[in-house]
## 1
Amino acid sequence: MSTPAASALSRPPLAARRPWTAARIAGHFFMGFWILSGLALALYLGQSLFSTFASQYLPKYFSGALVTLQLTVYSFLIGAALSVPLALACSSRFFALRSVGNAYVYFFRGTPLLAQVFLIYYGLGSFRSALDTVGLWWFFRDAWNCVLLTFALNTAAYQAEILRGAVQSMPKGQWEGALSLGLSRGVTFFKVILPQALIVALRPYGNEIILLLKGSAISSIVTIYDIMGEANRAFSRSFDFQAYIWAALAYLIAVEIIRRAWDLMERRLTRHLRRNA
């Protein structure tokens, strides 16, 4: 039978109490401030659900959310399709092809998305006669088409860099092993290298689609009634600042849904890489 003294000696020593430093006090203060602010905002929005503003304008936010979702998904998918040949061009052995690819990526990553939207929507609109001659005016006269094209071209540049980095991270032994089996470089890339590279690029792709979702708010400037467009219309008619609070909340919910769905997909696709406990 163990004695009380032996039991006391076998227990680990108690951790030393942390002193209340200025940094710790400030951290607790700001944490409490943000918690109270969040509770106050939740209370305010809860009361606003029964206001005239909510009954009149909140249903339109759902249609705006659908437009935002369509713009984000379509532009991301088109950009993903464009990013594969663009990444190949940037990694090409031919100087001319590599220069064109790098110039494309440099332009769309180095200029603001808003400026790109204006260049395509307002800039190309200045050449109506030329576009009408070649039969493209029907496309560029629609703000939706211009915004979708701009977002797709912009995200293609970012996705090409993500894909190129993922491909270059693959061990050279993958190429050598496939070539030793008699596989061509094209088959090796699309059947061996690309599937593994996409797994590596999953997390950066998730970040890109979230950035694209938040950047889609720019489309409201050229008369696209997405979430931000509906918020601007609601504020211009009601002059109630809660129009933008609801817009921010909608974006926050959308980002959180995408983040959790992407985490679930990543765990599903990489389950073979996890060791069993």
## 2
Amino acid sequence: MAAKVGRGRRARELGARLLPWAQIALGSLITALAVNLFLVPFKLADGGIVGIAVILHHRLGLPVAPLVLALNVPIFLAGWRVLGLAFIARTFFGVASLGFFIQLTRTIAPLTHDVLLATLYAGAVQGIGLGIVLRAGGSTGGNDTFARIVARKTRARVGQIILYFDLLVLAAAAVSFGPEQALYAAVTLFLTSRIVDFILEGQYAARAVMIVSDRHAAIAARILTELERGATLLEARGAYTGVERPVVLCVVSRDQVPRLRAIVHEEDEAAFMVMHEAAEVLGEGFTRLP
């Protein structure tokens, strides 16, 4: 009996470990469909590495999948030292999966000949795919990884770097395909970002989190170092036990929530965690005080 329980527990643990990788692969497949069904046929270079690959594909005739992989190589080399092995491992898997599925689905014919429909569906499908990948704690490489690297070396914010990167790609698209095509691509980019936001954390951009755990010091330390967010230890006393135990208070951006959950789970599976929407966050790392 005990042996069966042990095997069942190991099976559940293995499934829990493999689930994020399966989700990253699924999200990469959905993103690849958006690339081949909408972005490439309609010249929608909507920012990021994929946007650059779309431009180079139409200008030079190079295949998209190898371009996506090749353009991510220097980012990997830089990120290996700056961001750490754990993050780069999942990012590498996400990029490899995306490249594989782009190549696999490249012969599927477009579903529409209407550029407006393609623009809307490209944003929706790509947003779903990227949202699944990010929710699993992964990444498809590109500008978000590049932005994290630059942010570590400068005082610039990740969101600002991604915005400037995407604007440069849209400008290149305007030169390559014309202003009108770049405007369509901008709509796709906007829709993608909104759907990713919705999948990750609904309509809110930040979460205020309170964590009750015996491992409060370790959790707070990892929030400071791995998420680069501030954390406050609030003095608290259990109403039932009367035991004093600090409560960790922090505010994180929407894309950091999956990683925060993982940190708390890794440190203390019995931790008590409360998360609620922060309608507005003013201060360092978020919106500046007026």
## 3
Amino acid sequence: MLALLLCAVLAVHADALDVRVPESPVVALFGTDVVLNCSFSGVSKFNLSDMSVFWQLSDTQRTVHSFSQSRDQLIEQEERFSNRTSLFPDQLPAGNASLLLRRVRVSDEGSYTCFVRVQTYGRGAMLMQVAAPFSKPLVTWGQESALKPGDAVALSCEAYGGYPEAQVLWQDGAGRNLTDNITISQVANEKGLFSVKSVLTVILEPNSTYSCRLIHPLLGEEGQASVTISGQALGFPPLALWLTVALAVCLLALLVALTVVCRRKIRESCEEMRAEEEAKELEEAKELEEAKSSAATPLKS
């Protein structure tokens, strides 16, 4: 009712107060207190009993705070603002009609209108945005034992407790933005704060680095996390590694043993062949000697 009355009065007053509010959006941190500035000028000295200050939500025209007859008038105040708003009464004579809003919630975000009446009327509307920083992002990946270079693996980047929704950027070790094979989900809790999860699917390569950057639309860059997939991370699991080493050692020992045996066999075979050759040569020499002896003996008559 009071809002409709103020609007009607504003419509018929050509000489309005000079009411000033911020032109740029005011960013309020979740859970903190914020002052929505509103000042006025253009009137002579006055008594507080002769002025009224009225704050309302611009879109729904619901009452945020009301002051008249030298005191707060909160009968029509929106319930969710109960015990969270106040003016600065001692500064009203100086033209300060600012509103203190305590313990800012996500639901407080929106446009607020400041109405002031002192002899005549004026108003100004401003936008308040709510911001909550995200937790430091964390990057994880599934280190299954069967992974090997060339396999596809999902890298997950998660952060919590922020508002509004964040932008997530993936980059490789050279700082190049990655845009393919990315999914992102952002879910709000009962307080309106978001949890963000982004998944990047990559092909495993040894010694590869991937970074996840979280960018807050109101507060700027929130944080960065990275993961490096080393050659060791893509190796065999410990049991298979030891089995492979043991098998390799056994094969090497067997190869050495076979080499020694073969060399021994070859040496023995060569010695046998050499002995046979020497025996054969000795036999031939003996036969030749006997033949010469027979030829030299004279025949008897």
## 4
Amino acid sequence: MFCLSRLPKLRPLPRPLLAAAHRLRIDLRCSISSSAPPQVSPRGDEEECGDFLPWLERKAGVEVSSCLSIGKSAYGRSLFSSKAIRAGDSILKVPFNVEISPDDLLPEIRSCKVGNVAKLAAVILKELKMGQDSDWAPYMRCLPQRKEMHSTVFWSDEELEMIKESSVYQRTIDKKVGMEREFSVLRHALDRHFPEVSKDMEFEDFMHACALVESRAWESSKGYSLVPFADFLNHDGLAKAVLLRDEQKQFSEVIADRNYAPGEQVLISYGKFSNAILLLDFGFTIPHNIHDEVQIQFNVPLQDPLFKMKLYFLQRHCLQITRKFGISKCSADNFTIKLVLMLYFPYIRCH
């Protein structure tokens, strides 16, 4: 059985000098990794998604969960314990046959020269376009609308200006450029092989679908997969519970890492992500994030008589160096420090 992380783990990103998302309209979807959980409403989502779990279990042909129910918290759609849960209990099992992957696309679309995120986004666009005729209609209704998405690609120019000095700013610009390029390629393929999907499709629709994939999908043997119901679980940076994947038994599973009282929100870890990754791909940050990092850039001239000593200490104390020193003649190099910010740089203030 393998432990799964949500997509951003595949794209490590240096942390900007950013401690929290200072946005008036941001609605944090994820649990903070400290103190008490927020006020919750275990029955607050019944009108919209109350029939989702029974529908999913009928589609799967097996029970998915007997101890979780869908509701809303301050972080959006969430899962709550419907009865007492003990550490070590299996709280959900989602069979592979009800996971969504790029395999659901026509071969002509799967062969497009775009990434797996864009391919899975195309599946979402196809199902959304089909509306109530889609086999996944109950799931599609439960996915966040574009106005509910807060990753930085949806920020206005004015809002992005607030993080212009951070690496997230440039990463956001680069991501939107990449999305535009893939949209052009995918749009051409859809026009040719699936015109009913591409008709009236705008770039903003594609961007929304990509954001859904990046914030909800997990790595799988099929590339990336959406795991319905499991993706309603919110993130706690200190949680030990993760989504596990059993290739032999063909299901994804979550094992509780602690006891839960009835009505309590159940949380898992999406992965060991810095606030930069969380903000870029999920649209929130966590106070006191133990996985935070800061990127430092400075000059280490090759002619420096202490070059080898400096390189030794950097490699010894930094978990990641983004460029190998001494390979090029450029004197400016980047490296990333993780988990040492408070120890070695107590005077740095994050904005």
